[in-house]
Amino acid sequence: MQALVERIRSQAVHLGNGLIGVDSFINHQVDPHLITEMGHALAQAFVEAKVPEITRIVTAEVSGISLAFTTAQAMGIPMVFARKHRPKTMQDDHFAAHTRSYTHGKTVTLRIAAPYLQAHDRVLIIDDFLATGDTIMALAEFVQLSGAALCGIGCAIEKPFEKGRDRLSELRVPIVTLARVELIDQRLHVTD
Q1: Are 148 and 112 in contact (CB under 8 A)?
Q2: Domains parsed from the chain with CATH numbers
Q3: 111: which of 68, 137, 146, 175 lies 20 to 30 Å off by Cα?
Q4: What value does the mean pLDDT take over residues 86-90?
């Protein structure tokens, strides 16, 4: 997606150790026009991939929410996000999975209340980054635990050098990313 590629080229920052800062338009400050365009692009990509009858989008708190929301809005379906902290309002009937947060440097437990992910659901996982695949694998675990069908994975930015796509290949679903960022000589190289 050219608009995202251009924004990464002009505003993304390589923070070292493979971390890429996109705080000015995705992860901290959100550009609503760009996020909406990205959500529509992901929705269209799954239509073109002939992924039928999606009923639910799943993402992780916090950075995936805006992109998952706009994708769900474009598809006219609900979106549910996995929470990093169990609120007092969450009943015992929930799914839990652990993932390693690369940006926070620790393991976190994600949770989704069981009523929001049912066996009849056909699910897309949407997230901001496809890096190591850890978070997406935890979200896929929720889909499997619920008995729902995982139908695809969509991410704004892929970091191929982290090998996440290879790890996710065992899930045997279409994987769509809107931009790819490689590190060559410690410089960002961006393609769509």
Answers
A1: no
A2: 35-180 (3.40.50.2020)
A3: 175
A4: 60
